[in-house]
Design brief:
Shape of chain B: globular
Order of helices and strands of chain A: EEEEEEEEEEE
Radius of gyration of chain B: 14 Å
Largest sheet of chain A: 7 strands, mixed
Helix content of chain A: under 10%
Structural class of chain B: mainly beta
Number of strands of chain B: 11
Oligomer: heterodimer
Largest interface: A-B, 28 and 26 residues
Chain lengths: 112, 115
Amino acid sequence: KAGVTQTPRYLIKTRGQQVTLSCSPISGHRSVSWYQQTPGQGLQFLFEYFSETQRNKGNFPGRFSGRQFSNSRSEMNVSTLELGDSALYLCASSLEGTPHTFFGPGTRLTVL
Amino acid sequence: DQQVKQNSPSLSVQEGRISILNCDYTNSMFDYFLWYKKYPAEGPTFLISISSIKDKNEDGRFTVFLNKSAKHLSLHIVPSQPGDSAVYFCAASGAGGTSYGKLTFGQGTILTVHP
């Protein structure tokens, strides 16, 4: 079975721009979640989608948003980028009813 | 408000010895605990997990112990190998159903295993 895939792997943007990151979960996994990893804050939960609906949300500003499609693929969007948004963004998927969450390789976003 | 804490930023161990990584949590609603291993610029890799109804779970060289009354868990790696060198994260999730999709992570412990 293929693992969680994320595109692109690397991105460089400038302040004020917006960015969209994509994630394809493991086949059969309907829950998709997103995390941000920074040196200062560690791994922080952004949001989780299940059946195209946001089911859990972390403490991030409204500039961070996401969506999930009918095939379980997910995208997250960050608008009006700030320098502090530079981070590794990780997508993860899991089977419904289990906490075993599997992560993708991440997208490294650099905001200049 | 750090609900999951890994108080040791780093741990250095000799090859063949035991590595013990510790994790404390404050939220009594956490019901499931997981350990992940992470290399730089890669996503975390699931290692082992434990439900709150158990106090021990083993998988090969990895054993996780849970002390609910102390809100403490530990990961034991025996014997340690140089390839185990990585950052180890402890994570916790709430009780079942819709809470499983949200993991709360500790800050991580850098494990270095010397040959």
